[in-house]
Amino acid sequence: MKMNQVYQKIKEMILYGELKPGEFLTVGNLAECFNVSKTPVRDSLNTLKHEGLIDVLPYKGYMVSRVDAKDLLDLFDMRIILEGSATEMATRHANPPAYDELMKLAQIEVVESTEESVAVQFQRTNFNFHVAITKLSGNHYLYDSVCHVLNHLQRVLYRDLLTGDPVTMSREHIELVQCMKAGNPKNAKELAVQQIETTKQRVLGSVLIQQRR
């Protein structure tokens, strides 16, 4: 197993709840689990540290970072700022074939699989949909920033999807593409912000409830 495979596996274990916030990790145990040397595991954990998914415990090991309500609030606010602008810019620049591709992502059907659950497939689709809109903005700095924010939010968005309704997510995506196709950048931006704000309130409410337990 190569370093990028080890990195991706650990990341997905964190994003999709196999490794829980606050869980203690050691390089040795993970290396044994993946049947690899310690070097790719250590490199992977250090990369995930920079992505905010892992905390380093000096002289002890590593820990899956906890979900902090203040960080979530900041990340969702950044998402509103970045994706709102990206949607507005994409509406100005996108052409019919681009909208067709967005609609395919919005309407994608997932099926039970031995490799991935329906929730994981929907989560991947959700990520791909939002970064595809940002890519249509034509601004690669904006694209990189949105990818960074979404990566930080993947864990809580996945948990929200588990307790929510994937059909609603698909319906919102279709509505947003239709709004963009109508050709009014301001309206498209407002709808994107509204949808993100709704998710923010739902996720923050869920996190606060969990913290009180």
Give an overview in words.
- The chain has helices at 3-15, 27-34, 38-50, 69-93, 96-106, 118-135, 140-163, 166-181, 185-212; strands at 24-25, 54-57, 61-64.
- It is mainly α and 213 residues long.
- β2 (54-57) and β3 (61-64) form a beta hairpin.
- α2 (27-34) crosses α3 (38-50) and α4 (69-93) crosses α6 (118-135).
- Quickly count the domains: 2
Major sheet: 3 strands, antiparallel
The number of E-state strands comes to 3
User: At the first level of CATH, what is the class of the largest domain?
Assistant: Mainly Alpha
Average pLDDT reading: 89
CATH 4th-level superfamily of the largest domain: GntR ligand-binding domain-like
Strand order of the largest sheet: 1-3-2
| Secondary-structure content class | mainly alpha
How many helices does DSSP assign?
A: 9
Estimated share of beta-strand residues: under 5%
CATH architecture of the largest domain: Up-down Bundle
The whole-angstrom Rg is: 18 Å
**First-to-last CA distance:** 40 Å
CATH domain topology of the largest domain: Four Helix Bundle (Hemerythrin (Met), subunit A)
Oligomer: single chain
Q: How much helical structure, as a percent, in the residues?
A: over 70%
N-to-C series of helices and strands? HEHHEEHHHHHH
What is the overall shape?
elongated
Point out poorly predicted stretches: none
What's the SSE blueprint?
Blueprint: H1 3-15, E1 24-25, H2 27-34, H3 38-50, E2 54-57, E3 61-64, H4 69-93, H5 96-106, H6 118-135, H7 140-163, H8 166-181, H9 185-212
Helix pairs in contact: 1-3, 2-3, 4-6, 4-7, 4-9, 5-8, 6-7, 8-9
